[in-house]
Design goal:
39% of the residues lie in helices and 15% in strands. It is of the alpha/beta class and 237 residues long. It has a seven-stranded parallel sheet, sandwiched between helices.
Length: 237
């Protein structure tokens, strides 16, 4: 922005961002007022509202990390074949790699997208998913926003989203965008939140409180019938 100002002071400057949290707003305000003018215009798109009409949320208590993998494999992916495509959100690249390897080793065909991939590889993975060539996509929050695919009916929060600077606090906006990947364009959708310790339950409780929206609990992580019932309630079976 300094280079723009130094090179051509008499110009109109537009600044765009997919998201504007408070820290970004404060940064932009300081830069604009320091370098340009005190009087400027701001336009914000209205935040997407959490809708329970088309997407049903569930939480699943898992004893440990291994049981989370087994839930994904034996319940969600096996049943998911009948209802559409699935996106599994993880918190980090390491988690993405670990889950991808675990599922592939168990014989499942999944693809993974995360920030370390180059642009061409990411574009190819997204293209194949949009064309329906792949049914299960593991992703960091790279695809939490702005990715619309009508065939995605299941979203799995393998890891709940947390604030980067305050990892003990949930990132409500990212959670909202994640679950918004299911049930696009008026279709039905279901979201499964996998919880396996006190921190996960605390994060989930804060998310429920923030949105004033209790999330139904799957009675047993080992019960296929409970998962079938959840998908039936969501209108997917």
């Amino acid at each position: 922005m300094k280079a723009i100002l130094n090179g051509k002071a008499d110009c109109q400057v537009l600044l765009f961002s997919a998201t504007f949290n408070e820290s970004v707003k404060n940064f932009v305000k300081k830069i604009v007022e320091d370098l340009f003018v005190k009087d400027y215009n701001q336009l914000f798109v209205k935040k997407e509202e959490l809708s329970l009409e088309s997407v049903k949320q569930y939480k699943v208590q898992c004893p440990d990390e291994l049981s989370k993998v087994m839930v994904v494999k034996d319940k969600i992916l096996d049943l998911g074949k009948k209802v559409g495509q699935t996106i599994i959100f993880v918190r980090s690249r390491n988690s993405a790699h670990m889950l991808h390897k675990s599922l592939v080793d168990l014989g499942y065909e999944v693809t993974t997208i995360q920030g370390a991939l180059n642009h061409e590889d990411r574009d190819e993975i997204i293209k194949e998913f949009k064309q329906g060539l792949t049914q299960v996509l593991i992703s960091t929050d790279l695809l939490a926003r702005g990715f619309d695919q009508s065939q995605v009916n299941l979203v799995v929060n393998y890891d709940l989203p947390v604030q980067y600077e305050h990892p003990s606090e949930p990132d409500h906006e990212v959670y909202l965008h994640r679950i918004g990947r299911a049930g696009r364009f008026g279709r039905k959708g279901a979201v499964f939140n996998l919880l396996c310790n006190d921190k996960d339950n605390m994060l989930m409780s804060k998310i429920e409180s923030h949105f004033d929206s209790p999330v139904a609990e799957i009675t047993s992580w080992e019960s296929e019938e409970d998962f079938k019932a959840a998908l039936k309630t969501a209108g997917l079976l």
